[in-house]
């Protein structure tokens, strides 16, 4: 009997009620026989080899599951812990290449498109960079090639793609936070959260006391009333210089408030952003947030 024929095994014999062993198979040839004329021990070894011979199939299956576990991918993206990621995955919050994945242990590759609540995420270490922006740099980019952007100032801060949180006008100066942590960026930019910001302003003329009081009471703009936490003249300075604290994230809100009262802002410097300050941070320089600063931001 050929080796191929012998591999059809004893299962056919058992099903037909026969009890012949491989040693008795030489007298009568049959299409489906015991594992052949080979000795039993050898047959068992062959069986083990055959089992091991299935390894290539397992390898192919393994190739499909190569990569990183989905819960780890989500956690590395700074969304949440692995344990919480399992909960979100089971709830259907995560998609891979457009397909909702709810099974535990699912693996993805770095080339896969993974989205959490519809937003694309990447599994990289969250980074947080604070810049003291100088005057004359665009924040959101410029169509003109020769114009400089804040991204030029933080180009060497990280290999990851960092995005600024919030905006500052080109001629404005002061604190600007960058991160690749989409969750934190979303939370800090959420109008409902209202992150604390303090600005030092210089106006084109002295701010009348009546107008200062109007700002304290709230200024009505086309998109709603803006209320400030505090506003005051800068001590020992001209009344053209004021400090203002607010939590609004509306675009150009400070400029629009003063313009509605017939004032133009000559200089605007953001000196506090969510508890972060310019202390020991020269203009045009950046630094990495400390662990405590990061904790404070996450608790806002």
Structural account:
The chain is an alpha+beta fold and 300 residues long. It folds into 4 domains: 60 residues, no CATH class; 56 residues, RNA-binding S4 domain (Structural Genomics Hypothetical 15.5 Kd Protein In mrcA-pckA Intergenic Region, Chain A); 85 residues, 2-Layer Sandwich (Alpha-Beta Plaits); 77 residues, Pseudouridine synthase, CATH 3.30.2350. Helices cover 28% and strands 22% of the residues. It has 11 helices and 17 strands. The strands form 4 sheets. Strands 7, 8, 9, 10, 13, 14, 15, 16 and 17 form a 9-stranded mixed β-sheet that branches. The protein has a 4-stranded antiparallel β-sheet with strand order 3-2-5-6, with no helix packed on it. A hairpin with a 2-residue loop joins strand 2 and strand 3. The N terminus is likely disordered.
Layout of strands and helices, then pairs:
Blueprint: H1 3-6, H2 11-15, H3 40-52, H4 55-64, E1 68-69, H5 70-76, H6 82-90, E2 94-96, E3 99-100, E4 107-108, E5 114-116, E6 119-120, E7 128-133, H7 150-153, E8 163-165, E9 173-179, H8 182-189, E10 197-203, H9 209-217, E11 219-221, E12 224-226, E13 230-233, E14 241-246, H10 253-259, E15 265-273, E16 276-277, E17 286-288, H11 291-298
In short:
The protein folds into four domains: 60 residues, no CATH class; 56 residues, Structural Genomics Hypothetical 15.5 Kd Protein In mrcA-pckA Intergenic Region, Chain A; 85 residues, Pseudouridine synthase I, catalytic domain, N-terminal subdomain (Alpha-Beta Plaits, 2-Layer Sandwich); 77 residues, Pseudouridine synthase (2-Layer Sandwich). The protein is built from eleven helices and 17 strands.
């Amino acid at each position: 009997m050929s080796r191929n024929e012998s591999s059809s095994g004893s299962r056919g014999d058992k099903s037909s009620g026969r009890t012949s062993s491989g040693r008795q198979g030489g007298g009568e040839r049959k299409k489906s026989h015991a594992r052949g004329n080979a000795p039993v021990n050898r047959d068992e070894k062959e069986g083990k080899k055959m089992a091991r011979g299935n390894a290539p199939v397992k390898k192919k299956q393994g190739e499909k599951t190569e990569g990183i576990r989905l819960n780890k991918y989500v956690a590395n993206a700074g969304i949440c812990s692995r344990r919480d990621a399992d909960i979100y995955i089971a709830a259907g919050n995560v998609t891979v290449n457009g397909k909702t994945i709810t099974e535990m242990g699912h693996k993805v590759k770095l080339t896969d498109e993974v989205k959490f609540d519809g937003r694309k995420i990447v599994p990289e270490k969250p980074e947080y960079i604070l810049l003291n922006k100088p005057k004359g740099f665009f924040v959101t980019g410029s169509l003109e090639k020769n114009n400089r952007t804040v991204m030029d100032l933080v180009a060497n801060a990280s290999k990851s793609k960092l995005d600024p949180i919030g905006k500052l006008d080109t001629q404005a100066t002061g604190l600007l936070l960058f991160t690749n942590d989409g969750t934190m960026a979303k939370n800090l930019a959420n109008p409902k959260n209202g992150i604390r910001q303090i600005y030092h302003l210089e106006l084109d003329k002295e701010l009348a006391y009546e107008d200062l009081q109007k700002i304290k009471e709230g200024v009505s703009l086309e998109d709603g009333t803006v209320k400030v936490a505090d506003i005051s003249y800068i001590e020992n300075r001209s009344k053209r210089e004021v400090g203002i604290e607010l939590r609004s994230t509306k675009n150009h809100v400070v400029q629009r408030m003063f313009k509605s009262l017939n004032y133009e802002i000559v200089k605007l410097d953001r000196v506090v952003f969510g508890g972060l300050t310019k202390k020991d941070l020269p203009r045009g320089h950046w630094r990495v947030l400390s662990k405590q600063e990061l904790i404070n931001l996450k608790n806002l």
